[in-house]
Design brief:
Four copies of one chain form a homotetramer. The first copy, chain A, has 216 residues and is mainly alpha-helical. The first copy, chain A, contains nine helices and no strands. In chain A, 69% of the residues lie in helices and 0% in strands. Chains A and B meet through α1, α6, α8 and α9 of A and α6, α8 and α9 of B. Chain C binds a DNA duplex (21 and 21 nucleotides) through α1 and α3.
Chain lengths: 216, 216, 216, 216
Amino acid sequence: MSDTTEKEPQPRRRQARGERRIAQLLQAAAQVFCTTGYTAASTNAIAREAGVSPGTLYQFFPNKEAIAIELGDRLMHEMREAYGEALAPVDPATPLEEAIGSAVDRFMAFNTDHPVFFALMHGPDIPGRMAEAHAQLHTTVIGRIEALLGSLMPDATPADVSRTAHVCLGVYKAGLELVLSHEGAERAAYVQETKDVLIRYLEPLTGRRVGNPAVD
Amino acid sequence: MSDTTEKEPQPRRRQARGERRIAQLLQAAAQVFCTTGYTAASTNAIAREAGVSPGTLYQFFPNKEAIAIELGDRLMHEMREAYGEALAPVDPATPLEEAIGSAVDRFMAFNTDHPVFFALMHGPDIPGRMAEAHAQLHTTVIGRIEALLGSLMPDATPADVSRTAHVCLGVYKAGLELVLSHEGAERAAYVQETKDVLIRYLEPLTGRRVGNPAVD
Amino acid sequence: MSDTTEKEPQPRRRQARGERRIAQLLQAAAQVFCTTGYTAASTNAIAREAGVSPGTLYQFFPNKEAIAIELGDRLMHEMREAYGEALAPVDPATPLEEAIGSAVDRFMAFNTDHPVFFALMHGPDIPGRMAEAHAQLHTTVIGRIEALLGSLMPDATPADVSRTAHVCLGVYKAGLELVLSHEGAERAAYVQETKDVLIRYLEPLTGRRVGNPAVD
Amino acid sequence: MSDTTEKEPQPRRRQARGERRIAQLLQAAAQVFCTTGYTAASTNAIAREAGVSPGTLYQFFPNKEAIAIELGDRLMHEMREAYGEALAPVDPATPLEEAIGSAVDRFMAFNTDHPVFFALMHGPDIPGRMAEAHAQLHTTVIGRIEALLGSLMPDATPADVSRTAHVCLGVYKAGLELVLSHEGAERAAYVQETKDVLIRYLEPLTGRRVGNPAVD
DNA sequence: GATGAATGAGGATTCATTCAT
DNA sequence: TATGAATGAATCCTCATTCAT
């Protein structure tokens, strides 16, 4: 269902090229961010990677941060499209193990396919000082996790839910870093470890027992 | 927060002066790394912070990375001196909860007192591409954790132990980031969460139950 | 005895070279400002003209404006040193013609020797929007003229004196522009015209008549 | 004039539209020149201000300078249309005071209504090096003033007349700058001062006396 | 050993101008 | 014509590093 050939005679023919350039630039930026990190990435390097002149880059983005923001936005969008359900509140009937396992699998798959995501989450190298792009991504993701947890921790205060969400995200990012830096069986093993950490962490919080209909 | 009134009345050996300079520079570097992050830190800024000229800095360190390496080394050394026992193999009789709790407390205390440590662990912003300083620190720390875990997982393969160590470090770093970015009660809460994550993660691996001599 | 901080009045040996460089850079800046105007002058061009690298320029000046400011300051200083009397309140006994004639001669001489002065007065091309350097110069000069006029217009309000000062400066600058763009006899003629304009303008304001002790 | 259905190889329609575009662009250019000055004005900014694309601008003007030239031309034209008489040789019977007063009033009014004029006269920031547009404007204006003065200084040499014209223009520009940078009563006061300067300057040159049916 | 000067490549960004559609 | 994309040199400025004193 691509829009390459037939009918689109209407509003902007000009922007077709522009759209393409933007995509191209974002892809190049992703590449460069992954390779050198956000802080060290230079706009000239991005332009070079995209095979265009610096001026062209600035025709579409006012600065480096804007590139990261747009990249993050698109990533979030794509994620939502592809794995929307993974972010939806979980059916309480679903065993925790399964819920987490599938969520981690999905996110890991996405992050493995889009390693920039990690580079952006990682942030601009300044601990505690998150810039726009990063902050935006972070806020969105945390929100999603909070929503998820909300259905698992019905009795917890919002502050607790938020804290738990932050811990989960932190654990996930830590796991992701390990996953991304390994391959094959070892990578799979790290995926499993990440799941285990999360499952065991959340299990008591939810008042459920894995594989046990137990109560407290 | 630099030199206020420093008057050494005694004649020092040249080494002594050099040592003082180095300490001065490292302290300045720590400050700057924390403030701006490693990537964005400039050697000129470090020299300025130390109150010396750029030339002087390069008299003691061949480049920026060397500063980070030396800083990491000293940090490790200091850590070992101060909390050596926390890194020593644990008495199997110690309950896991207690062992982890005390280790996390010690490390968190150290990292809170020396925020550079985190900045260095965080690495030069290049995911997957750890530079010297980082790699060295990392290797040392991982080694320590492996040693620790070794006594807790006597039946595991080295690969498993190593993997578990990496996961623990990752979890710890994630927790540390959260701890450092909060204060007061919230910070304490995050410390506790970090412990919980680790405890619950390691508990089944060790074949023990917290406070329970029971077995699976 | 080593060189621990002794606050003896010789804090700079190093700065000898630096001082020279600064003078060199200011001279180059003067040259470039004259040639291309302040707005169009580039710091790289100034550095090139001075025969140094851009970095060197920025070791001494934080930006282009600072160069202009320092240049203006030095110019004012030099002017005061060389022609201080021309700026001092005039002996009321001095005939207006003579007072103005000598003041214009002195200033014209100075401005002819230091054409940058004009370029700086001319300002950054944006009417009404004077930047630091310009504003500073302007304020100082206006102040001088007001002082001069004060003794010639004892009965005028400060607002009138200020207005008259602005007009005089404007006339002088206009004359200077013409003087600088001509040479030889024509230049001399323009100097004379400038004097004439000012004399005739100020004459009735002072309640005196040139060469006439006569009527009102 | 704005018809559509026509099959001429050279329809006037084009011209009409082109004229409108040009006017649009010139107006935008005027706005931008006034706001940022000629040197700092960017063609992209002009195009944006005019609501067209950069390419369109270059369809009508080969470069930035050409815009300024055309703007100057139109301004001169408009001026001539509106205040033609002010530029015409003066009836020798007219008292100088009145002649100058009315001329200054007219020009000031025009310049106040069209502040670009000043921005253009001010020139491209390069003292002594007037670019095309500026030079053209300047030459035209000087010519007018020479014509004016011709009738007032019948006995002077052309060189003298030219010199006087330049001085008058300089004085006028200086006055204009002051006028434009003030408002209300103060502005009016500066207008009067400008007149006074010119009147007193020209009075003896013309061999007439203000308010006097003078003698030659 | 210490200093401050010097370097020059590189970074982000802008802009007059041209080109393809 | 009009458009918006494209260019690339030029702008200001920074920084790791080296040099002369």
